[in-house]
Write a structure and sequence with these properties.
heterodimer, A: about 90 residues, elongated, B: about 375 residues, alpha/beta, FAD/NAD(P)-binding domain, D-Amino Acid Oxidase, Chain A, domain 2, six-stranded mixed sheet, about 25% helix, about 25% strand, globular
């Protein structure tokens, strides 16, 4: 894979940028996202997490079992504020 | 390899712990270890609303937050941080919907102005000039300070951590404090899940878990933790300058430099405890408040909700002191939801206190004994 390949589409991060941050010490997906925002965009990591976890494995030598997946939080897909405000009340 | 002794062990890799570590090292005490049970900012720091304001209702909070804002303004240079802490100073707009709020704001503003904080009371029309998409129905007025704003908690913490490490501080992530050992009333060491560190000075900077660290030296600290929920939208072009908050509706909402809107609310019925789960009631309630207050935001998508812990004291002001019963046990806890914004000055005064220097702020009033003496100075302005 080339270094200028985009790994995180929502936040426009290249493979090289992700690898640099891992080398500087962000050795888990949760730690990494807080500094470079990978997985913090509209898809919330659903597109990029797998590829980024592979980079963490390659650089840190950790196995998949040693690397926790990021914590999943709602909503499972982006939801308009007006729809969230209405909740399950379809009459309003 | 982990150090087996240190002059000072700090428990908590949030912004407060890292700021204390940096200031200790800068003052010459470089034999310092920071313990963090997960990764830096895993606790309250990385879950907060990222606002920094000076508009407080007590002299203490005004002084601490003003001194901290002075530091935020030069933090990139001071810590030689090559990224950016994303300081944004487009103000805090605090909405008033009741006459008694206006009265309180007048008192606050007179105090703030006396202490050199440039805040003012404005009309609903002026508020709408500052935030054009604000619905001013029912609004009586607002308090505004243009120098308040936002900074990125992850980068602020990383900046302190990196600078501390360059000065010799060791930071151990994924390392839990399991116990604090004592002989007589003297602290002798900290037991971690990776080994023991001999020390005579321990700093409790454990945020939402500070009560558990207190228990390790036999203290029942007058703090409790409470979940506060928060959510974020997709990023859009710059639209909203200031952080907008309402004590009446218990919410805050700001657009961060990245473009996303971050918003949260306090729930008066939230039980005490360490729960950091999420609820659909929060998503629905807060979305309703936001759509009513900022109608144009109705078409923004929420992409994530999360939560973190406020560590709350009886007067909503922090506890910054050495425990009288346990010499060498220092505390920077109980920030009650505003630890991030006063972390820079907290780091300075705690380092001064630990090293026996003259403390540059009158924080002796924030000691543990104030609760027993009944000398509480209640902060009236908390979301």
């Amino acid at each position: 894979m080339k270094d200028d390949v985009i790994l995180c589409f929502c936040e426009d991060l290249t493979r090289e940028e992700v690898r640099e941050a891992i080398k500087k010490g962000s050795d888990s997906f949760e730690a990494l996202k807080r500094l470079i925002r990978c997985g913090m965009g509209a898809c919330q990591g659903k597109t990029c997490e797998e590829n980024i976890q592979r980079e963490i494995m390659a650089i840190t030598g950790k196995t998949r079992e040693e690397l926790p997946l990021q914590r999943q939080r709602p909503p499972s897909v982006g939801i308009f504020l007006q729809d969230a405000a209405r909740g399950d009340n379809d009459e309003k | 390899m982990m150090k087996n002794s240190a002059e000072v062990v700090i428990i908590g890799g949030g912004v407060v712990g890292c700021a204390i570590a940096y200031n200790l090292a800068k003052m010459g005490c470089t034999d310092v270890v920071v313990l963090e049970k997960e990764y830096l900012t895993a606790g309250a720091t990385g879950r907060c609303g990222a606002g920094i304001r000076q508009q407080w209702g007590t002299e203490m909070n005004c002084k601490l937050s003003k001194a901290s804002m002075d530091t935020f303004e030069v933090l990139n240079e001071m810590l030689e941080y090559p990224v950016d802490i994303e300081l944004k100073q487009n103000g805090y707009l605090i909405l008033a919907y009741e006459e008694k709020e206006i009265e309180q704001f007048k008192k606050n503003i007179s105090l703030q102005n006396r202490l050199g904080i440039d805040s003012r009371l404005i009309s609903p029309e002026e508020a709408r000039e500052i935030v054009p998409h604000l619905n001013i129905d029912g609004l009586l007025g607002a308090a505004f300070c243009g120098r308040d704003g936002h900074a990125n908690p992850f980068h602020v913490t990383q900046a302190y951590a990196d600078a501390a490490k360059r000065l010799g501080v060791e930071i151990y992530t994924y390392t839990s404090c399991m116990d604090i050992e004592r002989e007589g009333d003297q602290i002798t060491g900290v037991v971690t899940d990776k080994g023991k560190i001999k020390t005579s000075k321990v700093v409790n900077a454990a945020g939402g878990y500070s009560d558990l660290i207190g228990n390790m030296v036999g203290l029942e600290l007058p703090v409790f933790s409470e979940r506060h929920q928060i959510m974020v939208t997709e990023p859009v072009n710059p639209l909203q300058g200031p952080m907008v908050i309402s004590f009446y509706h218990h919410f805050y909402c700001q657009q961060v430099p990245h473009g996303a809107f971050i918003m949260g609310q306090g729930d008066p019925n939230e039980p005490k405890g360490h729960n950091i789960g999420h609820s659909w009631q929060f998503l629905q309630e807060l979305s309703g408040k936001i759509v009513r207050t900022f109608p144009v935001l109705k078409d923004l998508r929420v992409v994530r909700q999360w939560s973190g812990l406020y560590n709350i004291t009886p007067d909503s002001q922090p506890i910054l002191c050495e425990a009288p019963e346990v010499p060498g046990f220092y505390m920077a806890i109980g920030f009650s939801g505003h630890g991030f914004m006063i972390a820079p000055i907290t780091g300075v005064v705690m380092a001064e206190m630990i090293l026996g220097k003259e403390v540059s702020m009158p924080v002796h009033k924030l000691d543990l004994g104030r609760f027993e003496r009944g000398e509480l100075v209640l902060e009236p302005s908390v979301v």
